[in-house]
Structure formats: C-alpha cells, structure tokens
C-alpha cells in the first residue's frame, strides 16, 4: 500500500509535531490546504513567517510583544507591587480575559521537569529573582499549572522567594463554576475543601 507523496507526507509530519495535533488531524489539515485555493496556503505561510519575524519577548516579564514596549509592563495603571508568575504567554492571555488581575506578570517559559531535562537554568527564574531583589514588589502570586511540574515549580520558587522578604501566594484550586460535585474527581474535590473560605 502506497502512502502519501513526499510533499504531502512532509506537511503531515510538520503538523503532527504541533502540540494537540495528532496524525489524523494533521492529515485533515494537510488535505484541507490541498483542496483550498492556493491563496489560503500562501496566507497561512505568510502569517507564520510574519509572526516569527515580528513577535518579541519583553526583557522584563518575558511575555510576547509586537513592538519595543510591552503593553502590560508599560501600563502605568497596573499594580507594580504585585507580580503573577505563569508558565507560558497563553496563561497571561487567560488571566487577562478575567479582568480580575491588574498587576504585572513574569513568564517562566515552562515548568521544572527533570524527566524532560528542564531545570531552573532553562526557565526565566534568575530574572524573576532579580526583579524581586530590585525592590518595589510586595507580593508574588504563583499561578503555575495544577500538575506535578507546576506544583514542583511553585514549591521551588517559594523556597527561593521567601528569604527575599516578599509575600508569596498560590492561586486557589477547586471546582469550576457551573460544575457538578458528582462529576468532579477526588483530587479536585479535596482541593476545593482545603481551599474553602468563609462566606
């Protein structure tokens, strides 16, 4: 049985390397572009090239930005005494959509994972410590993901930050709004109980 021709197979392999894209989805995307007008492929390729050439990382918070100034770091209306530490730029977008947080951010670009060879030197931890040591920051909120890597990273950062005299907090965990208790897993329910508060 013959597989797809080389240019098609190459694009399928390229799509399949993207996070969240399995082999079947990679095939669907490839054959969609094959059937679509040529302009669709050119527009996609141009958007990728343009993004790679124009997106920068802020030298302070390491979030993505499109020009020389980070829109969050340069916003004087934000609380400059609070820094929320997240793993990825996507986490900043998620928190900004809530409109509940008005402080600054620090993006680590990953989480500690010895299995994958990601140690402290591969993350933006040293610049975070330098920001805190520079003064003016009263609280660091650790908003890493609620998984083994995120928890390990939060514990590691807590050990480094506490001696610097800054308040360190961790985002709460629990049940999602609109969720049903019967469908929640045991860990989520336990976290919800532990993080309960008075009403």
Structural class: alpha/beta
Overall number of domains = 2
Beta-strand content: 5-15%
Largest sheet: 4 strands, parallel
Named CATH topology of the largest domain: Dna Topoisomerase Vi A Subunit, Chain: A, domain 2
The count of DSSP E runs of length 2 or more, i.e. the number of strands, is 6
The SSE order reads HHHEEEHEHEHEH
Shape: globular
For the record, the CATH class of the largest domain is Alpha Beta
* Mean pLDDT over the residues: 90
Instruction: Give the helix level as a range of percent.
Output: 40-55%
Task: List the total number of helices.
Answer: 7
Instruction: Identify low-pLDDT runs.
Output: none
* Annotated CATH architecture of the largest domain: 3-Layer(aba) Sandwich
- Evaluate the radius of gyration: 21 Å
Strand order of the largest sheet: 4-3-5-6
First-to-last CA distance: 66 Å
Word description of this protein:
This protein is of the alpha/beta class. It folds into 2 domains: 6-54, Helicase, Ruva Protein, domain 3 (Orthogonal Bundle), CATH 1.10.8.420; 76-170, Dna Topoisomerase Vi A Subunit, Chain: A, domain 2. Helices cover 42% and strands 13% of the residues. The chain contains 7 helices and 6 strands. It has helices at 6-16, 23-35, 38-54, 89-98, 125-133, 148-161, 186-194; strands at residues 56-57, 64-65, 79-86, 103-107, 139-142, 167-170. The strands form 2 sheets. The protein has a 4-stranded parallel sheet with strand order 4-3-5-6. α1 packs across α2 (23-35). The radius of gyration is 21 Å and the shape is globular. The N and C termini lie far apart (66 Å). 17% of the residues are buried.
């Amino acid at each position: 049985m013959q597989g797809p021709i080389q240019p098609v197979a190459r694009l399928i392999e390229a799509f399949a390397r993207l996070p969240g894209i399995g082999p079947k989805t990679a095939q669907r995307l490839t054959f969609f572009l094959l059937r679509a007008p040529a302009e669709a492929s050119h527009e996609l390729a141009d958007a990728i090239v343009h993004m790679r050439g124009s997106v920068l990382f802020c030298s302070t918070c390491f979030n993505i930005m499109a020009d020389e100034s980070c829109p969050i770091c340069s916003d004087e209306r934000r609380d400059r005494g609070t820094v929320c530490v997240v793993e990825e730029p996507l986490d900043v977008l998620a928190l900004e959509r809530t409109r509940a947080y008005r402080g600054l951010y620090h993006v680590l670009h990953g989480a500690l994972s010895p299995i994958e060879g990601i140690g402290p030197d591969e993350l933006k931890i040293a610049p975070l410590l330098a920001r805190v040591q520079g003064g003016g920051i009263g609280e660091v909120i650790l908003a890493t993901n609620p998984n083994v890597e995120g928890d390990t990273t939060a514990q590691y950062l807590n050990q480094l930050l506490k001696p610097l005299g800054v308040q360190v907090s961790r985002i709460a965990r629990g049940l999602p709004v609109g969720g049903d208790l019967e469908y929640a897993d045991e860990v989520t329910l336990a976290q919800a109980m532990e993080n309960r508060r008075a009403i």
